[in-house]
């Protein structure tokens, strides 16, 4: 793996850690969950063959410290962070963007807010559950998760959250398990678990309550690639992105693996992402 060039960018209320590899047009990778920039380590080198690949730790995660540790988190502010990185790394030239999970929510808002700066966006399973007809059920899930977090702590709340995301009748998810992950991904579990209280307590409630401007996205859909996991059909984030694809009359591109296919199938995931970006 090529060692990236690292940098720091001062933004409103935080200092972002970012990483860059390769040369060519900018591809900004926006991580989801607690993965941070390192979540793309398994695919960044391959993508860097024909892109300047940049990623970062979102504000409040890992090496991107908040000025105020208690500050509320908003999708729009996270999208502005991504915009500031585009302005720094690809001034005046539209860039390509890919995001996974909560990072895909950020990517959608970035496209809505700054379409002139975006050539193409790949959004893999953004959990924009407010677009679904049964959104009220998912608001109740989020309320249960936060209540469990307050009363019982992190791991019971994480288990409640994971259970609410999976398809009905599927096997339980073991939260924090790394046995089935490639060694590179498994080695990150300890660090990412350290960010779990922030993610579950601050990011999840805000990001899963986010209501995208669906009409605006529809008008920009020629620049938007909506993606889901082959193995996550019927799960909550998949249902949300599939709903948008149907609403826009477009194709839902299926990536290998499930919601975390980036970690479980990095080579295949990266190859398809590279193909989709160049289409």
Automatic annotation (TrEMBL):
Molecular functions (GO terms): hydrolase activity
Highest rank taxon of the organism: Bacteria
SUPFAM superfamilies: alpha/beta-Hydrolases
InterPro entries reported for this sequence: AB_hydrolase, AB_hydrolase_1, AB_hydrolase_fold
A Pfam family: Abhydrolase_1
Gene3D superfamilies associated with the record: alpha/beta hydrolase (3.40.50.1820)
Alphabetical keyword list: Hydrolase
All copies of domain AB hydrolase-1, residue ranges: 25-154
Stored PANTHER family: AB HYDROLASE-1 DOMAIN-CONTAINING PROTEIN (PTHR43433:SF5), HYDROLASE, ALPHA/BETA FOLD FAMILY PROTEIN (PTHR43433)
The protein's name: Alpha/beta hydrolase
Organism: Planomonospora alba
């Amino acid at each position: 793996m090529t060692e990236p060039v690292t940098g720091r960018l001062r933004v409103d209320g935080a200092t972002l850690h970012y990483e860059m590899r390769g040369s060519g047009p900018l591809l900004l990778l926006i991580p989801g969950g607690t993965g941070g920039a390192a979540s793309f380590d398994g695919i960044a080198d391959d993508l860097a063959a024909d892109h300047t690949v940049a990623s970062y730790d979102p504000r409040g995660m890992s090496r991107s410290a908040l000025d105020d540790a208690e500050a509320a988190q908003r999708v729009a502010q996270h999208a502005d962070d991504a915009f500031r990185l585009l302005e720094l790394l690809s001034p005046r030239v539209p860039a390509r963007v890919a995001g996974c999970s909560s990072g895909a929510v950020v990517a959608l808002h970035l496209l809505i807010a700054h379409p002139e700066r975006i050539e193409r966006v790949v959004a893999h399973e953004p959990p924009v559950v407010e677009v679904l007809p049964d959104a009220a059920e998912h608001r109740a899930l989020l309320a249960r998760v936060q209540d469990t977090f307050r009363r019982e702590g992190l791991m019971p709340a994480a288990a409640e959250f994971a259970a609410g995301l999976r398809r009905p009748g599927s096997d339980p998810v073991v939260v924090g398990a790394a046995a089935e992950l490639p060694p590179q991904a498994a080695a990150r579990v300890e660090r990412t678990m350290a960010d779990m209280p922030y993610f579950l307590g601050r990011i999840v409630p805000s990001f899963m309550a986010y209501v995208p401007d669906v009409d605006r996205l529809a008008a920009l859909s020629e620049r938007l690639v909506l993606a889901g996991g082959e193995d996550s059909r019927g799960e909550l984030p998949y249902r949300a992105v599939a709903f948008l694809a149907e609403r826009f009359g477009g194709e839902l591109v299926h990536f290998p693996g499930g919601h975390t296919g980036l970690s479980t199938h990095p080579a295949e995931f990266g190859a398809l992402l590279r193909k989709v970006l160049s289409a």
